[in-house]
Amino acid sequence: MHLRIISASRRTDIPAFYGQWFMRRVRAGWCAMPNPFNSKQVSRVELRPDITLLVFWTRWAAPFLKAVAELKGRGFRFYFQYTLVNYPAAIDPYSPPLDRAVAAFRRLTEAIGPERVVWRYDPILLSDATDHAFHLENFARIAKALDGATRGVVISILDPYAKAARRLDRLGKEQPEFKYRVYDAERDGALMQQLARIAQAHSLRIQSCAETMDLTAAGIAPGKCIDDQLIREVFGIDVSRKKDKGQRTACGCIESRDIGMYDSCLFGCVYCYATRSFKAAGANHAARDPESASMIGQHRALPLPERRRTREWSI
């Protein structure tokens, strides 16, 4: 029997905003997941410790710490991708202050170990206000604050998806010091080298996330957020190394199933690719029902037929 990897979630911050719903579904043993492009197609996703490995994505784990203890008690295997970037409020208006975010990061590490909490300095947004000097000081400050609390850091250079590009353009017009600057390898390559040196000074393995450009010369190897190597090292489990076809070409992640939903995160990051409308995200969050089988709305899913279930989970 092989594990199904559940991503919770690239699309939203479940630990920060939907932890109560998630834990109700853990206790039920499954959740309903509508197709993000066709809500009439709803599938049932099993959430059982014997067949499930969880990967959480968050920038604020404090509300989820009791859930972490329960998940451990239930025998789940899981790790966290934890974003700490400490941008000005014009870019990240509702992210927790750095000192509180670091404290929550450390409490999580104390609960599950530093090898299971990966720091994300992601994405790197370049502008007059967030130039090389800003990123070097900011990255070094966070790395020092996290000494001993993590083993690795993931970086990526901002890709302005259409949803985010419009917000970035508007921000640049309203506050020119935040006008987005496209990464240039000749001009900005030194920044990558210096970030790698800072990471090395703090005993952090630094990797890139879904980068089309080769940063290995700067000391940054391509990485995987849903990572078969990390899973093998931490949990002693060999999982499929098959690339997730649902992700970008440059993404190295192995296959997983995401149970989050778009337009549901409240952090309001100007670069967010998963939120079309912050107003819609607020409305969806306000209308959430922790008793529902699905994170947003009242989607239902029937149990899998026993023959299909056996076929799905067997090697």
Report on the architecture of this protein.
The longest helix has 17 residues, at 185-201. This protein is of the alpha/beta class and 315 residues long. The chain is built from ten helices and ten strands.
Q: What is the secondary structure topology, with strand pairs?
A:
Layout: E1 4-8, H1 14-17, H2 19-28, E2 30-35, E3 38-46, E4 52-58, H3 65-73, E5 77-83, H4 98-112, E6 117-124, H5 132-145, E7 152-157, H6 162-174, H7 185-201, E8 205-208, E9 221-222, H8 228-235, E10 257-258, H9 278-286, H10 306-313
Helix pairs in contact: 3-4, 5-7
A few lines on this structure:
With 315 residues, this protein is of the alpha/beta class.
Keywords:
315 residues; alpha/beta; 8-stranded parallel beta sheet; two-stranded antiparallel ribbon; 10 helices; 10 strands; disordered C terminus
Count helical runs: 10
Q: Count the beta strands.
A: 10
Largest sheet: number of strands, sense, barrel closure: 8 strands, parallel
Give the overall shape, derived from the CA principal axes: globular
What's the rounded overall pLDDT mean? 93
The poorly predicted ranges are: 306-315
How would you spell out the order of helices and strands? EHHEEEHEHEHEHHEEHEHH
Portion in helices = 25-40%
Strand content: 15-25%
Distance between the termini: 5 Å
Placed side by side, the strands forming the largest sheet appear as: 9-8-7-6-5-4-1-10
| Quaternary structure state of the chains depicted | single chain
Gyration radius, rounded: 19 Å
Given helix and strand content, the structural type is: alpha/beta
